[in-house]
Structure formats: C-alpha cells, structure tokens
Amino acid sequence: MNEMQLIDINIVSVGPEIILLAAGILFLFFKLFPAKLSRYLSVPAMIILFCLFIFLPFFRDNNVAGFAGAIKWDNTSLLFYILLLFAALLAIMFSHGKLKDNERAGEFYFLLYVAQAGMILMVTARDLLIVFLSMEILSVSLYVLVGMFRAGKAQMEAMVKYFLLGSFSSAVFLMGLALIYGASGATHFDSLYPATISSLHMLALFYIGVVMVLAGLGFKIAAVPFHMWAPDAYEGADESVAAFLAAAPKIAAFAVIYRLGMIMNLYTVETLTAVIVVMSAGSMVLGNLAALKQTMLIRMLAYSGIAQVGYMLIGILVLPQSGAAALLFYLFVYVFMNMGAFGIAVFLSREKGGNVAIDDLAGLAKGRPLVAFAMAVFMISLAGIPPTGGFFAKFYIFKSGIEAGYLGVVIIAVIATVVSLYYYFRVIMAMYMQEKEEGARWGSAGFDFLPAVLFLCAFALLACGLIAPHLLSSLMPGEAH
Amino acid sequence: MPSFSSLLYLLIFLPLAGVLINTAGIRVFREKITSIIACAAVGSALLFTLCLLPEFLSLPQSERTFSVILYQWFAEGALEVNIGLLLDSLSLVMVLVVLFVGFLIHIYSIKYMAGDAGFNRFFIYLNLFIVFMLILVLADNLILTFVGWEGVGLCSYLLIGFWHEKKSAADAGRKAFVVNRIGDAGFILGILLIIITFNTVNYAELTEIMNAGHGVSIFIIGAACLLLLIGAMGKSAQFPLHVWLPDAMEGPTPVSALIHAATMVNAGVYLLCRISPLLSQAQFILPVIVAVGLVTALYAAISALGQKDIKRVLAYSTVSQIGFMFAAVGSGYYMAGIFHLAAHGIFKGLLFLGAGAVIHALHGEQDINKMGGLSGRLPAVAKTFLIGLMALAGIFPLSGFFSKDAVLWGVFDSYGISLWLVGFATALLTALYCGKLYGLAFSGQSNFTEKPHLIAAAMKYPLIVLAFCAAVAGVLGLPLLTKETIFASFLAPSFTGVENIHAAVSASAHMQELILMIIAGIAVIFVIWRTAIAYSRNREAVLAYEHNYPRAAEFLLQGLKMDKLYDVILVAPFYRLTKRCSLFIDQKIIDGAVNGTGKISMVAGHFVSSLQSGYTRYYACSFICGVLIFSVIVIWLFKG
Question: Does A18 touch chain B (CB under 8 A)?
Fold first, then answer.
C-alpha cells in the first residue's frame, strides 16, 4: 500500500458505519434505564436504519472513496447496501414482539448494528484485508446473537458449534489471504490481476489462495460443502435472528464474491469456474434433497436457503455479462421471500412457543387467512412459480446461464427446482388442506404488526413479478470499477 | 381546461378504488355505505367519460384516438407488451355502454340485493367486473385485452355462482367456466400465432403492418382470425359454445342484465371489430362468421319460443341477438354490429331489469305460465317492459328497428336474398316470442294470488331511464336508407375495410332496401300483435298445443337438446376416456414414474440428511475436504 496521507481518509466513506456504531453504543446504555423503556427501543432502532437511506443520494454516481482506495462506493455497492438495510429492517420488525419487555433489547440492537456495520464495510471494501476485518466484526456479533435469547443446552451447543466452525472458516480465509499476498505481493483488488503474476508456481499458489478465500466466503453464504453449520445454527437461534442470519451475511458475502469476479475477472478462468460449478451444483442437489426430509420448518428453510444459494452461484458464473443484474435481482427477491418465510416461523413460534414443525401450519388458512396467503406467496416464490418475483429471478438466472453456455448446470438447476416443489407445496398443503388439531388457537384477528409486515413482503414479491424487467434493467450495474 | 385524455387511466382506477375501499370494509361497512361507494365509483367514471366527450369530439375525425402508455409490461426480443390504453370511437362507444348500463344496474341492485347476506361481496364483484370490462375495451394490445377478458370471465363465474349454496348455481358457474376455457384456448392460440407471425400484439401496429405490404400468407392471417373467432364464440355464447349462457341465469338478475346481456357477452363482437384489419385481409373468414351468427340467431330464437322461465327466454334471446351482431360483422358491416350491440345492451338490460322486478314482486316466481295480468299490478314495469320488447322485436321507431334493419341490410348487401330470409325469419321468431312473453306474463287474467311486492323507486327509475333510451336511441341510425348514418360515420375511423360507406348508393338499391324494410317492419308488427292477443285472450287454447305435443315442447324447452347432444358425443366419451386414463396411464405409468422419482429423491434425501450428524468435527472435516478437493481441482485443471 502506498504511503497514506491524511487527505486520503475520507470520513464520509464510512459514514453509515460510524452512525451505526455510535447508535449501537447508545443502545447499550439503555440498560441503565427502567426495563419498561425497552419496549419502545425498536422504534428508534428502525428510524436510524431508515435514516441510513439518506446516504443514497450522496454516494450515487459519485464513486466516493476513502482510506487510500481501500474503501470505495460505487452504484453496485449501493445496491448491496440497500439490500442490507432492508434485511436489517425486517429483522428488527420480526424481533419487535420478542424484545418488548426484554431487558436485553439494548444489547440486541447493539449487536445487530455492529453486524450491520461490518457488512456495510464488507460491501464497500476493496482490499482483502479490510474484507477479512469486516467479516470478523460481523462474525463475532453473529456468534453472540445466535445464542442470545435461548438458554437451553441445545441452543448453547448450536452457538458453540457456530463459533468453532466460524473461527475455522476465518482461519482458512486468512490462510488464503496469506497465500494470495505471498503469490502476488498485494491485497488490494485492483492490483490482484492474475495476469500480473509471472511465475507458474506462484500462479498455482495464487489460485489455491483464492480457493481458500472462496471457502471462507462459501461458509458465510452456506454453500455446499461449507454449509453444515447452517441448519443447526438457525434452529438454535431465535427465529428473528435466524431470519437475519439466513439473508444478510449472504448478501455481504455475495458482494465480495461478486467483486472478486468483476474486478479480477477471476471466474473467467476455467480452473475457478469449475470450483463455482461444483459449489453451485452441490448446493442445489444437496440442499433440495435434504429439505425433502425435514419436518421442522426452520430446518426445511435452512436447506432451502442452501439450495437458493446454488441458483445464485450460476449468476456468479456469468459475471461480467448478464449475470450481474440477474444475481442482484435474485438477491433482492431472496431477501423478501426468505425473510418472509422466516417471519412466518417467528409468528408461529410466538403463537405456539418452541420450535415450529411444518405440521403446525395446519389450518392456518382458516385461522389467519392473510398470513397463510403471505406464506403461500413466499413458498410459491421460493419454488419459482409465476407471477411472483421468484419466478423471474430464476428465469433471468437460468437464461443468463444458458446464454453463457452453462447448459449442464442449468439442467441440474431445473431438475432441482422440480424436486423443490414437493417440500414447498407441502407447506401450502398443510396450511390450506389440513385441519388443525383441537385446542390449537391462533391469536386475535385484530390488527397486528407482524402479519402486516409479512403481508407487505408478499405484496412486494407479487409487485416484483409485475415490474421484473424494469427492476432488472435498473439493477444493471452502471460501471465495473 | 385540463386535458382529460392524459388522465385516461382514471377510468380504470376509479372503479378499482371502489373495489379496494369496499374490500377493506367488507366486514365493517353497512349496506348503505357499500352501495354509495360502489355507485360513486362507477358514476364518477361515467362522469369522467362524459367530460372527455367534448374534447374527443372537437378533434377531426381521423385523429380521434387517445392513447396512454402507462408502462412497459415486458419485452422479449422484438416483442413489446405495454400496459397501454387506447380510446378511439369504438372503445368510446363500448365504455359508454358499459358505464351507462353498469351505473343504472348498480343503482337497481341496491334495492334488489338489499338484505342479502353477501351484499358487500356482491358490490365488490360488480365493481371488479366493471374494472376488468374497461381494461378489456380500453386495452391497446391483444394481451392486455386478454387480461380483461379473463378478468370478466372470473367475475362472471363468481357472480353466476354467487348463491353457491344452491347446487344448480354452483354447477352453472362451473359450466360457464369450462365452456369458456374452450374459447379461451382458441384466443390464446390466436394471440400466439399473431406474435409468431407479426412480432407485435399492439392494435395500431397490427393495422400498420396490414396496411403496408407484409408478405404474410392470407391463410396464416385467416388461421389467426379463425382462432380468435373461436375465442369470441366462447365469450359471446355462439353456437355451439352457447350452452353456458342459459344456465348462467342462476345468478342474481342484475348480473344477468349487466354481464350476460349488456356487456361481457358482447366482448366477442368487440374483439372481431378490433381485428378488422386482419379480417379485411382474410376475406374468406367472413362467411364463416356470418354462418355462425345466423345459425345461432335462428337456433336461439327457436329455443326461446319453448322456454318457460322468463329469464331463460331472455337468455336465448340474447344469444340470438348476438348472432345478429356476428352476422353484421361477417358482412363487413362492423358499424351496424356495434350499433346493434349498443341498442341491444340498452333494451336487453331493460328487459332483464324488468324481469328482475317481476320476479322480485312475485316472491321469486320465474315461470311465465304462472304469471299473467301483471300490467294492472305493476304498471310501470309493464310499460317499460313493453317498450323493451318492442325494441327487441324491432318495431318502428324504436332503437331495435334501426339497428336490426342495418344488420339485415348488411347481410342482404353482402350475401343476397337467401341469407336475408334467414335473418328475416329470425326477426319474425323474435316478434313471436316477444308477443308470447307479453301476452302470458303481463296481459290477460292474473294467475297469481299473493299480493305482489311493491317496486322501490331505486328499481323503477333505472327502468324508466333505460326505456327512454331504448325508445330514442334509434335517432343515431338516421338518416335511413343510407350507409352513412350518424353512428356509422362516427365509428368508421376505427375500422379497416369500411371505406365503401361513403360510396353513393344506387337508386335501385334504395328501392330494394325500402321494400325489404317495409316488409320486415310490417310483418314484425303484425306477428307481435297477433301473438300477444292470442296468448292473452285464448291462453288455454294456445297452451293446449303444448300439452298435445309434449315431446316437441320438451325439445324446445331444452334448447333443441343441445346439452343432451354434448353429453352423448363429448361428455360421456370423455368420462370413459378419463376413467381409462386414470386407471391405466395415470395410476400405472405416471404415478409409477412420479412415485419412483419421489422415492428415489426421498431415499437420497434420507442419505443426505444423515450426513448431518451434529458432530462439529464432521462439519469441520467436510469443510476441509471441500477446500482440499477444490484445490485439487484447481491444480489439476491448471496443469492440463
């Protein structure tokens, strides 16, 4: 790195992170106040996140850079940023009921904000070291979040497991980083072109380094074979945390994978294409097959999420071309449909307590028709059936995959989609065709915050289906660097 | 003055707002609030159209088109589909008919449906229907038209089965649904063929292509027209796809008036008019349309004679009159077809509302043989009903006379005297069942002992307004004995292939037309008068015919047993086929394959989930194996 001068530190470029951290620390102080106050905490927490949308016009088309180029905002990072804000907003809305009278609410928002700051840093980072640093900020807060609300043995086990495996993956990532630095002498994305490496041995070392970096990121997106932690961690965590865990870190990690591809043109190299193909096909096959057998809703959604990552990785394969917009569109839809489905789990566990089984959904259509309708939209969208956004997301990904010549992967993806219909429709069948057992009750039919949010998510998905092409063309990244 | 045309989308959004507000308040709103919102939604749209009218008329004739593109729906290759609205003289007439009749029927329904458990639901469906109908007629491309087309079909299905506790109502809804699917299949295939051939579905672009040299075989254009014709036949209940309409009378009577007489069932005629550029190239399709129209007209008029239920008489009559419209389109006289459509929308709406008033007054009695002498008890209904019947029969100077005359002349002009005779025979039959209906139900002795309900003002005034319009709308068909009537010259810019209306008509043609018109006019008056007298004075003697020939009467009652025919040649074999299929193909082959796949997936799923042992060391192992395998892949590919 060049010698840094004071003027290179552009504070604005980390503006959102600073606000998040400051606000997060303020939240910590709320423990000093009466516990009753904590029920109103979710309101400022949401408002602050809303305020972060203010940065959009500042960063748009401006290519704000800071820290001697280690951080850079372009329009694509802005899109990832928006997605992250949506995910965090939904997570706060989901946790609202849980945290109403919980004295640990302040800590929860602190951790969520720190995680959010880490992810925003990840999205804007242009240096592998910064990526590693921000990933650690994210991970550490996630470890705590996973074990936060549940004190049972199983939950502690899930948290420890997640912590151990997460540290393991960080170590592998760091090892890959070291190899890359050793081979090329640089960590900044702009200086990492494989073509600059002359020696063949060094190039091999460089690629192995990239594989290890990808493994670290693959852990975050829960792609096969780095996915094993996901079902256990989701199940152990509170549902609202699981919803966040299953969407936000994936967005951030995909941003890094995307960057590596766009700037370094990595995946045009045949060797690395093969790695992505294996990861993608493996995730689709394994995720879908394992989801078939699940009886618990969260575990089913965990495997379904693994499968969804497999589809998204096809977009990575086609990166410099149409894949970018298709991937972004998929992520956009994914935030709403996946978090929405988790939101239903939040709703059900609130009504019923404990872990939710798929059979617990029986009779939901009669008891709470709007909630059931929202869930049906999420499932239909996850399965990729029109007229939802999920259909167009798959359609564009598959289309770009076929155009780039990855017919084999797309065929696997289509077959995997067909298999996935089974478990998605099992949920719809349970809601609409099964009677609920005696004694089970759904809460009051009056206005309720959570169902309204879920309904809005479903509506957004349907709207995505209607305006898909516009969304897609507006998501086209304006520039590569 | 603000430009209304740029706000064209309001036409659709106003009724839509009614739907949304009423849906939000479905559990809360009282009947009064719901009905005010629903009527205001349609009324404001009607008002908006009337405000639009001066701006529209101030334009020179050739420029009378407002088009608004809301946004691009999707684009694939060269094909672009917009959410765009097009208001030309054709769609303006349709919009006016839909909103005017629709508004009156909304008001009428307030009293008719009062006290029904599904009152709010009824008005939501009714508004929703108006929304989709407006989308249908205002769409600027085939695909958006299809959206409206399916939407009105959905509302029709929901409203026919509105009283779904009644099995016959639910069955009728299902029948309408199934029969319409056949037509819709034709429509979709037609759209696809047009997309493949011309790469556009926009009406204006299609017209341009047609006017330029396009080099597409007329047989392909003909095939597309034929497929769209099948779609039109399904929606407009044309022979042999008409079987659903008489059964659709199970719905509430205002629905029959709005959907199954005045608006939706005419969508087929509208569609054929919209594709007039295609039809003008594929001239050989026109005789097919005439044949369909006249066969339907004659068949339905005969069937109407034998009906006992007042609504079914009117239903068959509707089928028959739409047959007339098809005949006009098939003769190339699109304007006459639309003129008859508008006139028919008004007087048939009137007749259905009148029938509804009668049924309401008689505590739900629908059998005309059990009615009689109603003119004394329900004078306002009887008078307006008589005006409606005379308009339907085509008596001078009511609107039906002008429109029917225009249609008949069109048929004569294009196909000669033999087909004119078929149309003339149908007109006589129409007069016959009109006379019978009035004679049996309204004049003569009263058969009904109970005291009839009073007719509320909200039900009476729509009848009077419609009767007035039915009486005077014929003015638009002036001047007589020319092709260039007020109405036709207003509509002409919307069509292709109608330039000949400006051509001078020879003196001998004038004479022919005059003679035919006088013959038809006098014959019709004579027939309706004699039958009405016969049925009111010698009721027993005439009805005795029916008792003497029970099989013939039954044959007529069942609409020449078309349902039976369908049962024998289609439904029964289809059931047998499906049974075989379900036994052999489905259970053995498909189920076997599906279950097999499912089983394999399940076994694999079981194996895969068993990998998830729960031990952290295995998870870490999988992680490191992944890294190693990927590294090996990279090195291996790198070397090679």
Answer: no
Q: Which residues contact A414 (CB under 8 A, 6 or more apart)?
A: A398
Among the partner residues A160, A168, A468, nearest to B620 by beta-carbon distance = A168
- Is the CB of residue B632 less than 8 Å from the CB of residue A280? no
Place of tokens 């041995």: A201
- A386 contacts chain B (CB < 8 A): no
B99, B248 Cβ separation under 8 angstroms:
no
Residue A195, pLDDT > 70, answer no
User: Pick the residue with more confidence: B144 or A472?
Assistant: B144
Domain count, chain A: 1
SS (H, E, C) B390-424: HHHHCCCCCHHHHHHHHHHHHHHHHHCHHHHHHHH
Pairing verdict, β B79-87 and A71-72: unpaired
Distances (CA, A) of A17 to A20, A83, A124, A246: 5, 15, 11, 22
By the 10 Å C-beta count (0-12 exposed, 13-18 middle, 19+ buried), B595 is classed as exposed
In a domain, A271, yes or no: no
- In single-letter form, the type of residue at position B473 comes to A
Other Cβ atoms within 10 Å of B88 Cβ, number: 21
To the nearest whole Å, the CA of B421 is away from the closest chain A CA by: 51
User: Which residue is closest to B630 within chain A, CA to CA?
Assistant: A275
Classify residue A5: in a domain, yes or no: no
Angstrom CA distances, B301 to B143, B167, B313, stand at 34, 28, 9
Chain B interface, best mutation among A197, A292, A474, by max B CB count within 10 A: A292
pLDDT of A142 > 80? The answer is: yes
Range of the domain at A390: 283-481
- Out of A203, A215, A289, name the one closest to residue B626 (CB): A215
Q: Residue holding tokens 């004579």?
A: B526
Q: How far apart are CA A415 and CA A427, in angstroms?
A: 20
Q: Does A286 touch chain B (CB under 8 A)?
A: yes
Tokens found for residue B181? 């699917």
Interval A243-252 mean pLDDT: 94
Q: Is residue A418, in this structure, part of any structural domain at all?
A: yes
Tell whether the model's pLDDT for residue B130 goes beyond 50: yes
Give the torsion through C-alpha atoms of A40, A42, A46, A48, to 10 deg.
Answer: 70
What CA–CA distance (Å, rounded) separates B404 from B480? 12
- Cα B5 to chain center, whole Å? 27
Nearest-angstrom CA–CA distance, B194 and B213 = 16
Find chain A residues with C-beta within 8 A of B75's C-beta. Answer: 469
Cα–Cα distance between B13 and A446 in angstroms, integer?
A: 29
In a domain, A330, yes or no: yes
For A82-115, write each residue's pLDDT tens digit. 999 999 999 999 888 777 667 778 888 999 999 9
Query: H-type helices in A318-448, by residue range?
Result: 324-352, 364-367, 369-383, 389-403, 407-433
In the numeric block, the tokens 């199983």 are attached to A154
In three state form, how does the secondary structure of B614-633 look?
CCHHHHHHHHHHHHHHHHHH
Q: From B607, which residue of chain A is nearest by alpha-carbon distance?
A: A290
